[in-house]
Every structure is written in C-alpha cells, then in structure tokens.
Amino acid sequence: MPVPHRRFGHPRFHVLSCALSLAALTTPQLVLAAPDQSIRVQADALLAQERPAEALLVVERRLAVAPDDDDAFRLRVLALAELGASRLAVDAMHQRPQLFADHERERIEGDAVARAIGWGRVEPESPDARLDESRAALVELERLQRDAPRRTNWEANRLRVDALSALNHLQRHEQVVAGYQALLDAGIEVPAYILGTVGDSLVALRRPEDAIPVLETVIAHAPGDVNARILLGYAFIETERFDRALPLFETLAASQEAWPRHAGANAGYENWDRYSADLNHALAHSYANDNARAEAMLQSQVAIGPNNAGLQAAYGAVQSRRLRPEAALERFEMARTLAPQDRDALAGRVGALTALDRIDEARDAIETLQLARPEDPRLDRVERDLDRHRGVQATLSANRGRSRPRDGGGTSISPFGSRDGGWALDVRSPLLADRWRVGVFAHDDWADFIDGRVRHRAAGVGTWYRHDRLGAWATLGSASGASRGATWTLGADWRFDDAWRAGVEIARNARDTSLQARRLGIDADSVTVSAAYAPSETFALEGRLARLRYDDGNTRDQLGLDATQRLLTRPHLMVDGLASLYTSRGSRGDTVGYFNPERDASANLGLRFDHITWRRYETAFQQRLQVMAGPYWQRERGTQWVPSLGYRHLWRRDGHELEYGVAWSRPVYDGLREQRLAFDVELRWGGAR
C-alpha cells in the first residue's frame, strides 16, 4: 500500500490553523465576543460534545484578549490534545504545568509519544531520515519512564505497550518479544491492538508457532484486521500448514471488494486491503511451490498497476523461483526505479545477480542494502548466502554397485563388472577476483571382472572461471592404475538467456572410459557437446552429443535427450513426468573385447515423485522415488524392455546438501539380461554442483 510522504512538513504544524478555519466556517456565531465565564462554559460544553475544533476557536478568541487566563489556556491545551495536535499540546502544557492534574499531564504526554511513533511509520521525504522519528519517539518514551515515572498505572503500562510499536518499526524484534513477555509476567493484560505488532516480531524472529495464538487473538478481537490475517497466513506457511494458509488467503481476498462504495456515493474508492490480500495470496501459492499459478495471478495485477514498486518486486521474486534470474533482475530494477528504498527489491537484486554469476555487482548490491536497510532481519541471511557462494566449494561422492545375470548363476558380462565402486573429491577455493577458482580433484574407480579387479585413479589441479554468461575450466592431472599418463580437460559453456545454455568439453584420458576397455590397456579421449533448455522450474530439456575415441581405433558416438515436465504440484509433493532417448554406435562393433554395440538405442518414460517430508526454513528432508521403463534395442540382439527404480534421500541445511540413494535396474547387454543394484552418496558443500 502506498505510504504518504511528508512533502509539506510535519502535519502537527497545520492542525491549529486548520481547526480554526473549520470552526470559523461551521460555527460563525461563536466568533462574537462573550463574557469570560460564558466562553469557558461554551468551551467546556463543546469539548464534552466532542467538538474540539469549535472549542479551540472559542478559547483562542479569549486568549487573544486575555493571554493570562489560566482556564482558557488549560482548555486550549485540552482542545489541542483532542484534535490530535499532541506535540503542540505538550509544548503548551509545559508552559503552565500547574494547571493540569497528573492523569491529564500523563495522558497528553502519552498521546504525544504515540503520535510520534505513528508518524515514524510514514515514509519520510528523505530516505536518510526513515527511522529518525521512531528513534526520537523511543528516546522520548524512555526519558519519560526514567525521569518522570507515571503515577497512573494505566499510563505507565501504556508507555510500555507503545514502546513495542516503536521497537518493531526499528526491527528490534527481540526487544519487542521480551517487552511483551515482561508485561505478561507482570500480570498485565496486553491490549489487543498491539498484539499484531507482537505477532509480526515473532514471525520475523522465525517463531511462527508462538505467533499463531497471538495473531488468532488479534483476529478474535478484530475480525476485519486484514494485516493480522495476512501475518497469520504466513505463520501457517512457516509451520508448513499450507492446508490452513491457502484457504485463509483465498477467503481473505474474496472478502475484500476492489472498489467498495459508501451508501449514497456516486463512485467507489480504492481498497488497498484488496491489493494486499491479492498480492499475498499469489505469494502464498509461490511458497507452496505453485510458481506458475503465482505468476499468472501477479501478471494480471502488474498489468493494472505497473508503477507499483512492491508489486514489481513481488513479481521479480516469483521469477527468481521460476529460475529466471534475468527476468527477476529486470523487475527488481523496475521496483528500484519506482522506489529506491524498496527492501524487497534491494534484497532480491542480490540473489538475482548471484544466480547470474555477476558477483562483483552482487557485492555492490548488498552494500546498497546494508546502507539503505541495516535493520532488515533478512540482511544477515542475504549476506550469508552470498558469502557461501563466494566461499569454498567441495563435493565428495562415493558409489558401490553389483551386477549379476538374471538367474543368479554364471558370470556377469556387465561393463560395470560383477562389482564396482569408487569415490571422487573436488575442492575449489573461494572466488578470486569474483570470477576465478582454483582447486584440486581426485577420483578412484574400480570394477571386478572375471580376470580380476581393474582400477583407475586420477588426481590433479584445475582452474574455473565463471562470470555472467561465460563459464570455462581446465584441469590437469595424472592417472594411475589400469592406465597411466596425463589426464586433462578443457571446457566452456555459454548462457544465452534464462532458458538456453550450451557447452563443450574436451577430455584426454576421459574418466567415463569403460573400465572393460581399461583392463585391456585401452584408454579413450572424448569430445562432448551439450545444450539445455529450461524456461522454468517445471520443464527442462537437455541434450548431449559425445564422441569417445579409443586407443584401439574404435570411435563411439553417443546422443542422449532427457526431458522433464511437471505434472502435479502440491505444497509438499511434486510429480514430474520423465522421458529419455538414447542412441549410440561404435565403429568396430562388438569385436573389441568390451561392450561396444555396433548400433543401439533406447527410449524410456517414467515418473519422479519428490516429497518434502520435513522442512524448517533452509533445513529440509526430501524423499524421491523414480520409476522408469522402456525398450532397449541392439543391432542383431533384438529389443527388450528395461525397467529401473530409484529411491533417494536429500538433506539440505544452510545451502549444504547430503544426498544418497539406491537404484535397481534390469539392463540388457548383448542380448543377455542382468540385474543391477547400486548405492551412491554425495555431500555438496558451499553450493557446489
């Protein structure tokens, strides 16, 4: 909702003149001179009738001719307080404090503090002064508590309650919750109007379980409080109760007319509560993984209000979740143009620039956020995410497998051998000059064949470059075991836009050379060209064309296509349809002593089920089940169906991931079916992939 600016000075300086003008227009008869006693009686009566503007006009007339009239002066202060000109009332009251009882003085001073806290939430003319008034109000409140303790319990408690509002605006949420708990511990009934503020601080502190009962109490007292309902919806989301959050947002949006009309009015008025309800309803679907629906909902709003900075920033956030960082950055920049201090746009830019590998700009963006919103509780998380991306990255993986003929007897002819396994380690340095990494790698692969175990080891160093659209890498190492000598890779990739990416890699003594060939002393070099099209998180198409050139003169060409399409999205369950095509050919056929079909091809269809079993912000446990099946054809060996089944666990915590799983399949080699069971585990540290 747009917040008014103080473009014409503080409103309290206009209260007196406006009130006098209003009273003069509405009650001209009171401008006439009257006896002193009559004036005071009139003013008292007008205040009792809740007509403070008219009362103020009466006493101003009296004070103009008798400035020492204490009764008129006292009534003037009370009228100013009733009009909401609390600061003017306090300043005047301090000129003649003896005219006021303790409860009147404390009420007027409390009103002034409360007004200052309220005005502190209005967007200032200068961004640098955004929190100045809230800080000043809190200082004044604490001064009253320290130097002039309230003699009225109600006023003393009121200051403690109002302090919670100022502290919340200053993002000092721990103090808000501590102050609220202190009130409860003292047996003080906390008024319902401040509970929404307490709930907001509890949500900001990531204590949604505690926020829910507080916010439910607010709604019980004020069913029409839209902000409290929105906060309650987010508290449900953060406790993974989407079954309660989504209906709440839907009901809230449906309950708000876009253009309500007062009785007798010719036209309706803008209902910003409807805007807030619609915006947060869309974002709730995004948090429930249904980014496609969230995008569609926000598109219609953006078409109506393209100049709304908050709306553009929200649309950018959804674009980020749809894996479109360029589109997201464009929206964040639009929001910044409209509102340079918009905190969602400032924070979102950091993530979008990081995803685009424009790390130098991301660092500048986070400095801008630090200067503009140093109190924002998200700042620490944004800084940690960027630091993690810039820091050390490492991947450690291991695998074991077993293959055997279908009937369990005889000798396996699998290219993996009867048993196989290995491990790999890749460690890369923190970013150097925001673009470079250097590191080391090592791997050990082995397989048991009928004539013994074959092992291939390699270790070396590498350098990796990535900035904006371009990525490039080179590694150099030495191999030992079944094959010896140098091993190296040289590769690059290019991101055309949010959807398209392509790359190429050349490898000497390629790691994916068949261990069956290595057991014969045959190595292979490879050239691989890859391309990927992923317009969103719900669809991806990847292609890979590779040529392996073996030392024995054999060349093997491979072409693979993999497609993924989201079929079902629920808050904790995603179902994807899978499809893959593969074909290859070998120049020397199957006469080389290792599995090398002259021609073969396969086609598979399947389903993948991802279930988020448990999640607490950045920490989550996910289960994955994948089922695929399809025909495999080999020249002169016929066609047979090959099923496969995989089950995996994925643990995430603060950007680090642990993934492990088991896979079962019944592949066919040279017309003979085998049964394969494999297990693998991988630890990714620092966002490594």
Task: Give your account of this protein's structure.
This protein is an alpha+beta fold and 689 residues long. Helix content is 40%, strand content 31%. It contains 21 helices and 17 strands. The chain has helices at 15-26, 36-48, 52-65, 70-83, 86-93, 102-119, 132-147, 153-169, 173-185, 195-204, 208-221, 226-238, 242-255, 272-287, 291-304, 309-321, 325-338, 343-355, 359-372, 378-390, 515-518; strands at 393-405, 419-428, 436-449, 452-467, 470-481, 485-495, 500-508, 524-536, 539-550, 555-570, 573-586, 599-616, 619-634, 638-653, 656-665, 668-669, 672-685. The protein has a 16-stranded antiparallel β-barrel with strand order 1-2-3-4-5-6-7-8-9-10-11-12-13-14-15-17. A hairpin with a 2-residue loop joins strand 12 and strand 13 (619-634). Helix 12 (226-238) packs antiparallel against helix 13 and helix 18 packs parallel to helix 20 (378-390). The longest helix is centred in the N-terminal third of the chain and has 18 residues, at 102-119. The chain is elongated. The two termini are 40 Å apart. Residues 1-34 have low confidence and may be disordered.
